[in-house]
Amino acid sequence: MNQSILTRNHVKVRGNGTTPIVFAPGFGCDQSVWDAVVPAFEDEYQLILFDYVGAGNSDLRAYDMNRYSTLDGYAQDVIDICEALDLSKIVFVGHSVGAVIGMLASLRRPELFSQLIMVGPSPCYLNDPPEYYGGFEEDQLLGLIEMMEKNYIGWATVFAATVVNQPDRPEIKEELESRFCSTDPIIARQFAKAAFFSDHRKDLPKVTVPSLILQCSNDVIAPSAVGEYMQKHLPYSTLIQMKANGHCPHMSHPEETVQLIRDYLNAYVI
């Protein structure tokens, strides 16, 4: 067991089962975003939680601007964690960009994974008409990066509200905002560039691991057209439309999130 990798990513292992589930957070978040979901799986599975380098309680000394300039560096970290814990037949549950990071890891090491469960994923955030609607124009994303540079706290407030998209749930917005604000602004901006300007559409047809796509309702970050595109181009995939609003159902609607993950896993003999 490589303790330095486990320390680097603040890896936590819990649960009483043998089949591993790796939970990956989305942009700007740490492993605590899964707190309302993971207890439901503790009795049956081995649960692995981690922080991206630069987020949460990870080892900031391990942050490398070149390594993390693309999502490939984060995907390699996932593989490092799996190898350090000697995992196999992994169920990978990733939120948002975390889902794409898991997908990239599965392309490098498909034998490590049994299922990919993608919560609000997007292979590309930029619109590319007429074939693809990602939800954003380039000037919108450039404006987002510029706002991060000029007024990071203001950006965190606005972006958290956009992501959650539930005015009647201010506590969820505030929880997300506090996570954004706890991340180093320079690292957050670098991660935002790697996430929001990436295009992994061409990687979708290469994926060999069965996958579940959980598409949220009224999701500004990953609109329904994105979920439909992924289901069309991702082999062995299942698309489920959630009742949950916004982009963070694991925080705002954990019961539905748990049930859909459980139903999917119960349909497979792992």
From TrEMBL:
Signal peptide: none
Domain AB hydrolase-1: 21-259
Record-stated family: Belongs to the AB hydrolase superfamily.
Protein name: Regulator of RsbP phosphatase
Organism: Bacillus mojavensis
Gene of this entry: rsbQ
